[in-house]
Amino acid sequence: MCGFVGMFNRNSACDAEQMMTGMSAAIRHRGPDDSQYLRRDGFHIAFRRLSIIDLDTGAQPFASEDGRFIAVFNGEIYNYRDLRAPLIEEGVEFRTNSEIEVIVALYRKYGEKFIGMLRGMFAILIYDAEQKTVFAGRDYFGIKPLYYRETRDGLLFSSEMKAFLFDGEMGEFTVDPAMLQHYFTFQYVPEPHTITPGIQALEAAHYMVADEKGFRTERYFTPAFGKPSEESFEAKAEKLRKVLTESVEYHMISDVEVGTFLSSGIDSAIVTAIASRLNPGIKALTIGFDVAAYSEIDDAREIAKHLNVEHIVLKGNCEQFRDAFEKTVFHLDSPVADPSTVAIYMLAREAASHVKVMLSGEGSDELFAGYKTYRDSLGAGRFEDAPAAVKAVCRGLSHLIPNGVKGKNFLLRAGYPLEERYVGNAFLFNEKQKAAFLKCCNPNQTYTELTRPYFDEVHDRDPLIKMQYVDIGTWLKGDILVKGDRLSMGNSLEVRVPFLDKEVFAFASTLKDSDKLQNGTTKYLLRYAFKDYVDPATFMRPKLGYPVPVRVWLKNELYEWAREIISRSTADEFIDRKAALQMLEDHRSGKADNYRKLWSILVFLTWHRLYIAEADRTRERILRGELAYTQRNAWFDAQKAEEEAK
User: Fold this and answer.
1) Is 2 a catalytic residue?
2) DSSP label at residue 572
3) Does the chain have fewer CB atoms within 10 Å around its N or its C terminus?
4) How many CB atoms are located within 10 Å of the residue 336 CB?
5) Bridge-partner residues for 495, per DSSP?
């Protein structure tokens, strides 16, 4: 919906308008419809608006009529009308139809605890001029971002990290070697950490209260899995249909047109099916590439035909993918080594030319157990009591078998406890592998430092719930939601995720393992509950997740491009260029399948160039608008013209 940067400064005489203006320019893509700056005492706020709800009177920052509260928020509160009604009955008078006025009224009445009443995605800042305090809060799952940095005299906030490029007190971006080492395992830097020292993410489901003495943070929600429900399977299916349909209906509240992303999988098909029943003829968008086995277009086209929705298809190729790479890395803020990010950026750019809001199926896999690796949990418990000698043999054998070869995962499960081998849905390099190319690698550091707290919180639960809980705490926040927010908002597009709703989670948290994994199938109850909404092929189709042919291209079309990025890098204090180039040669020759590992290096080196080596040039490009979305690339227009000609 929007973006903001803010400052809470104990020195009320501080003049920060110039810095706020630069920081605001860095996130103009989040809100091209309006820009406002406001200062009250030591509180400064610059706001960028993407108009979605209450187009005429919903401008921000919002000031209460008595002048006590100044507030901004980014996101959507889907139940704000429900929360507004009882306040009106109590005599509260509203000047607008906006969510932000309801937020301020709730904060006035309930204080900090109001945040647990909200249903939606949000990042909020509220300044109380009477108490001289700032409240900052973030939604339950971390859908909307909020970063902060402690300054000499207070706090600096931003919707995106890139705004800190204009933070004169911080100086230049730097790299935290410890977080870089973790990046090369997880393929992102897990929150609340960032790759840059001094910049932190306010964690999902947390709020912060700051005053002239300092600040404190509180956790207001834990995605806890409750006691399994003993209801019948059919009763659960009926309840799931009801709660998810309600969530999609809430997520479609808008004063502008809403569309959906449509892949070949069950999640987006269900969301599109429900949305099309609520709004017949809704637009659905799909992307695919011109390499066999890396396109979901044909399957998505069948789904769209079955649902009778308007289907918009984007066909991409290697050149277009390469051209979108730099802007993708820029908009991600911090390195995220997921090749699908470029495809998502391209699709979001096309979507933005049709609608302002899109629905996505993200979050379903974490709540309903959709990843293939979750099936391993069914047999994980049987290895826990195996003799130590047997485990040692399995560990040794697992290291001898190459990745991707059948039997390796079985031996890993037999040789290592879940807490030592599972770090989330992605796993790039172990610590020994990192030492071969990462010059700052610390042999005393291990990736389990970041996952251990999550495992400790669910130490008495079964393996499947442990894996889901770790993914919700790491992978979902650090990969799925980062690319969903940054790459859509990088194109001035809002993406909403109906599965990541607190009521949907409340239901999903009571499911048995057999409701989620059954007959060799993931998300079993979800598939069953909506089997009548989609065609039979979609009902059982496995997840692909925006497949892109990077593995193929790095051997041919992208080989020279990748070699140039590595060879011209100035990040020699971190990456051994010779080792990285050898990795590329081994991949090209077929000696090893290194595409995901290579991609992580290419993303980091490009991020390092944009945010460190060429930071001054990046700032200039931001101010000129070169890195922000302005209009679709010429090749999008050419493709549409070609399609229309046919």
Assistant:
1) yes
2) T
3) C
4) 25
5) 358
